[in-house]
DNA sequence: TAGATTGTTAATCGATTAACAATC
DNA sequence: TAGATTGTTAATCGATTAACAATC
């Protein structure tokens, strides 16, 4: 297949746009599974409850080029989205804190589909150390050095109690990670060069509480 | 204590503002626990990595009135935030799908602190029915009528596999719920009067993938 | 008092939406 | 061909940031 792509400017895409891309990818993969070869921005918009113009603008950042009157080639669009998100490559990741939320993330199938490879989990609970959770080996925090050796682990997912979040995160600062996905309530202090994405589960609840 | 509040316009607050409020509340509660009686917007901004002017604008929606030179009364601010978010009242909620993510949410302590009372969970797995998960009783889907009887349950939290999400959600449409917190990948079709908040765990990962 | 902080009004910035020519 | 859809350029909308008087 001959994929026609424009140059891709990842920094140029707005944050709201980037956050919508996974939904497009999910939808377009389903369309492919259902045998669709082309899909228009209008159809995507209807399915996701968005405006067609917003869909076109969003998809444009990936470099995809559609055909007037027809829409986008589904397979091309999947590749364009995966490429833009870098989800066509494997990304090694480690999970810190295998409590109930951590365990849930270990078992979340969507991540693996999107290039995320959780190679290990760390937990302070000796009962969990040495076992597998959802197929991922659990290590003690003493094993950080060993686990990171000769592996390019890009990111840690932090699912710890508030009190130990900062001090535990610090143990990974000099291990070559470039990103922390922070599910704790703590605003982490990190060295330059490490990007933190904080998730706040309560914010969605806040929206429902105020807007219902 | 004499709380001075302006009128509160919940619809007038922007969505980004509403989403930041839980972080303020969390921080200000910690400040209270540490014995602080007043806190300035500048301090809050520093702690959360925001601009002071944004903090002041955000907090203003709750009706809180600060003192120039001093800041906000911590206890007043907690009450103002809780009141605005309606988190000073109990909200009965039901969880649908007690898989790993559902289980994690059942055990998430922040929700209870914020007025959420998960009165029951539903699951199709007979092994789970009749048991407690994190203190919450698990019912079969046949028990919906019985569980909702004479109880004002405002919201369902949906943590189901994609394939059964829509059909399962529909069983709750005529039970008086006003909101659905949707953790599935499905864009739900719901009747008017039910507000849906969709969470996409992959969107945070997308931001990290693109902006790192 | 001097100076830090609030809250309001105005300016800027950025994202969404509209308009429309190009095109298959 | 006629008409639906793309992609670009412009207009609008809304959120963030700046400026500053009021004030404790």
What do the pLDDT scores of chain A average to?
Answer: 96
The tally of strands of chain A reads: 9
Strand content of chain A: 15-25%
Rg calculated over all Cα atoms of chain A:
20 Å
Strand order of the largest sheet of chain A: 5-6-4-3-7-8-9
Structure characterization notes:
The structure is a homodimer of 212-residue chains. Chain A is of the alpha/beta class and 212 residues long. Chain A has nine helices and nine strands. Chain A has helices at 15-33, 41-48, 52-60, 74-85, 100-106, 109-113, 144-148, 162-170, 201-211, and strands spanning 38-39, 72-73, 91-96, 116-122, 132-133, 136-139, 153-158, 179-182, 195-198. In chain A, strand 7, helix 8 (162-170) and strand 8 form a beta-alpha-beta unit. The longest helix of chain A is centred in the N-terminal third of the chain and has 19 residues, at 15-33. The first copy, chain A, binds a DNA duplex (24 and 24 nucleotides) through residues 14, 16-17, 40-42, 51-54, 56-57, 60, 65-72.
């Amino acid at each position: 297949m001959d994929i026609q792509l424009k140059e891709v400017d990842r920094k140029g895409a707005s944050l709201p746009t980037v956050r919508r891309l996974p939904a497009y990818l999910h939808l377009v993969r389903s369309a492919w599974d259902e045998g669709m070869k082309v899909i228009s921005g209008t159809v995507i918009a209807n399915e996701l409850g968005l405006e067609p113009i917003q869909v076109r603008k969003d998809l444009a950042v990936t470099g995809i080029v559609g055909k007037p009157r027809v829409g986008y080639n589904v397979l091309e669009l999947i590749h364009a989205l995966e490429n833009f998100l870098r989800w066509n490559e494997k990304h090694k990741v480690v999970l810190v804190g295998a409590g109930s939320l951590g365990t849930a993330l270990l078992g979340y199938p969507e991540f693996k589909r999107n290039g995320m490879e959780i190679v290990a989990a760390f937990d302070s609970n000796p009962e969990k150390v040495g076992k597998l959770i959802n197929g991922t080996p659990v290590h003690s925090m003493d094993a950080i050095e060993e686990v990171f050796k000769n592996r390019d682990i890009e990111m840690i997912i932090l699912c710890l109690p508030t009190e130990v979040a900062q001090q535990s995160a610090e143990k990974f600062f000099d291990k070559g990670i470039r990103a922390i996905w922070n599910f704790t309530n703590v605003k982490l202090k990190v060295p330059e060069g490490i990007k933190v994405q904080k998730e706040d589960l309560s914010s969605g609840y806040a929206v429902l509480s105020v807007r219902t």
